[in-house]
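User: I'm putting together a teaching handout on how multi-component assemblies are represented. Below are the sequence lines for each component of a complex, exactly as they appear in our records. Could you produce the 3D structure of the whole assembly as structure tokens, so the students can see both representations side by side? Please keep the chain order the same as the input.
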Amino acid sequence: MSAVVTRFAPSPNGWLHAGHALSALTAFDIAQRNGGRFVLRIEDIDVARRSPEYVAAIYDDLAWLGLTWQEPVLVQSEHFTEYLAAADKLIAMGLLYPCFASRAEIEAAADPSRVDPDGAPLYPGLWKKVAAEEIKNRLETGDTPALRLDMDAAMAALRAKIGEMPLTFTEIDENGVARTLRAEPERWGDAVIVRKDVPASYHLAVVVDDARQGVTHVTRGQDIMPATGLHRLLQVLLELPEPVYSHHRLIRWSDGRKLSKSSGDMGLRSLRQEGASAEDIKRAIGFS
Ligand code: GLU
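Assistant: Of course. Below is the structure of the complete assembly, with chains in the same order as your input.
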């Protein structure tokens, strides 16, 4: 088996909170216990929301927690051409189509009872079967489309590759016990693979970069678990290696609310300024 590589991949559009600390510490710990490597990735494709101040705070907060990582850090906004190259492969396979619909148009046309795992309305196929002529006319107006995955075609392409075998992923629990779970990419419908506003998407960039950084063990919060199904589909279609996954529990307020980056909930900076030590944080999140 190849050496273990884990990663922490925060988005610099807010301060890190206790939930991020758990993600980062989990990944670091798995690398350490297996004599592996821990890498860092700044997921800043959302260029309108990222800020250099948040990037600097990520390095600062992680060092304060006692973590060290391999250089160089991968900064996603420096790699848009590579995400587009991966999208080109999917285009060549006939699996992406342009979509000019606005969020409002999608909401108006969608069936409110059908939502994706993030709770967003499932795309109602507005631009799925549109004539090439209409797409050309729209492109000539200077409009940029999103590129969506034709999920039916993608599942057919998957079948051509793996036959009737179910698409699965390997989940490793907190005790190190592995189980095989079924991946359900269909739950996302015709997901956006290249956004309108930036030439990438979270789903595309994450699979390209996990492969590029040689990540063998993806660790992240349970809230992202449904995305793993879509990531497995993209990995098979793009012929990328399959990592194993651990989805850790989420840190919540005692009334069950999720922590929020934007409102600064349990921000590592503010806890530190209030006098908390890294050990205090580790203890509070059950990691010591
Ligand atoms: N960038 C994502 C976030 O900050 C994490 C994505 C991942 O770990 O796959 O929520």
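A couple of points students might notice: Residues 143 and 201 are 18 Å apart (CA to CA). Residues 9-11, 43, 206, 220, 224 surround glutamic acid (CB under 6 Å).
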